[in-house]
Amino acid sequence: MRSGFHPARLSRRELVRQALPLAGAWSLTRSFASCEDSATTVHRDLVRAMEQAELSTLFRGSMADQCRTWQRVFHARLRELLGESTPPPRWTIAEESRKEFEKYKRYELLLQSAGAPSLPVYLLVPKGLRGGQTAPAVLCVHGHGPFGHDATSRARPHTSTGGTTITAVSSPSEVTSPPHRA
Question: 163 is in which domain, residue-wise?
Fold first, then answer.
């Protein structure tokens, strides 16, 4: 272990930043060793796993009452598997970076709330807004699609100029969650 390196002091975000190059190298090594396509991604791994998964809650009925019963059972099982999903009532944000594009600005934010894991997001805001003017915006939570967060980080201008507001940034230091719907 090198001097001055303290893993317990790393933020989750910093750990991910340091681990990504190693993960990429490991993926390439594994791909070369097994002669697989070097473009293996988390998305592709998930697709393969889903293709092989048994569909234990597949609807096999044909009547409306069978469908309603299946929906109740499915909903209960899904909630059990997902666990609690009520968003925190209030988030604070830390602006990690800001980048200007031709038609929009991209803010890299870290949403934080007590008792919840931090959530890295991109907020894309159209350029040219005048004081007090509102416009559609898109809050992009990057995930496990075929391109990971790169799909958002390389977003096209129409992504933000024709989007829909997901949540509103009320000031530079806070984000308000939308009302929870049951």
Answer: 90-176
